[in-house]
Amino acid sequence: MTSPEERTDVPGVSRELADNVELVHFPEEEDRPHVPLTELATMLSGSRQHEEGLEENLSANFSQESEVLLPDAARATLPEHQSLVFGSQPRNRLDVFVPRQRWRKRGPLPTVVFITGGAWTIGYKAWGALLGRRLSQRGVLVFCLDYRNFPQGKATDMLEDVNRGIAWVINNAELYGGDPGCLYIVGQSAGGHLGSLALMAQCARTAANEAASGGGGVMKKGGGEDGKAPVAAQDSTAPDKNIATIELTDPATDTSVLAETDPLKSASLTPSSDPVGEWPAWNPALVRGFVGVSGAYDLVTLADHLDARGLNREMFGAIMSLDGRPALARLSPARVVRALAPGATARMPPVLLLHGTADKSVPVQNALDYALALEAAGVPVRLKLYKGKTHTQPIVEDPMRGGRDGLMDDVLELVTGKPQSHFQFPMLPSFLIDWATYVCPF
């Protein structure tokens, strides 16, 4: 644990906030395990496995051994693990990482839905492959979702794909040994943005439906109306919200971005503002926790920054548009959560935000501001800062480098409720990973 003085060195973290934010140090390079250069050829060819004491997860198809626990009816239509189709739109595909039989013998598995990042333009489900593989080796069933990228679709289309994918997972997790009532959503970068919006919209929808029906509305598995995706059964058990909250000072709000084209961004959203992204419907009561990794939560304050880094302002406005006009505020989780009615925020699961202090794609202030908004809305939230980490290091470079996989440990801690600390052998020599970090545009 770092001192309060050290934690206040992070921009945006005041001395009053320092005791409530966890700043994580990672081992220096000389403390990490290294791979001799003589092993590089075999590692690149894939002929050597560098996972310390771990079983290999199932990859392409279920083995005969894995089918023992499944009913006969399920075996007849058992799908493959890679690029499963969950919808009719382009890129409506997902990959599944299934734990070995020894984990499935213990009962239904906690289930994680990973929503990939990629600046809303180049996302691909394989970004979550390392996290999915590592979690599955520790008894967690993982589904990595794809969704339409721009220009195939705008943010609203991406939200539709994400919702459809989550609904598919809820209705099919049991086929793979998962527990749909023990669901966790993990979103990285753009995936953190989309996952946050989808979750808040579903909470707002269920709250409004219950209020309209006098509290008697219950969704049933296998249902669905007006062509919407089936929705999983209602879980009467309230999600665990025993996650420490944080206190944040309210930052100044930047309303200078796209003022002439986005009238919503300079005005406060109200509880009457309908959240975007509530279709297809699924039951948010099944979600036990949400993890945002290097997420983009306030698009208004990010627009100029992203434009300077290569995501053109006009293109960004087109991605984040409603009815043909940029709508950055309506599509900013940090602003939407402030406008949610109390009945909706009460349905939000605990939120864990993970962010690198050296993130140049989405500065850490974005996570600080979102944590403030969640805390102000009464949503249980915990913010964990990775000191010196960039936008992609927690999800890509660090798992390949070896040593402690901090992201995997933090997700696993949320899922299990127990502290985690696992160390991995490196997959590649450090100099290659350092070079990849250097040339990575994120």
UniProtKB/TrEMBL annotation:
UniProt keyword Nucleotide-binding, yes or no: no
UniProt GO BP: proteolysis
EC number of this enzyme: 3.1.1.n2
A molecular-function term among this protein's GO annotations: serine-type peptidase activity
InterPro entries membership: AB_hydrolase_fold, BD-FAE-like_dom, GDXG_lipolytic_enzyme, Peptidase_S9_cat
Signal peptide: none
Sequence ranges assigned to domain BD-FAE-like in this UniProt record: 94-203
The keyword Nucleotide-binding is assigned to this record: no
Highest taxon of source: Eukaryota
Family stated for the protein in its record: Belongs to the AB hydrolase superfamily. Isoprenylcysteine methylesterase family.
PANTHER family membership: AB HYDROLASE SUPERFAMILY PROTEIN C4A8.06C, KYNURENINE FORMAMIDASE
Protein name stated in the entry: protein-S-isoprenylcysteine alpha-carbonyl methylesterase
Record organism: Prototheca wickerhamii
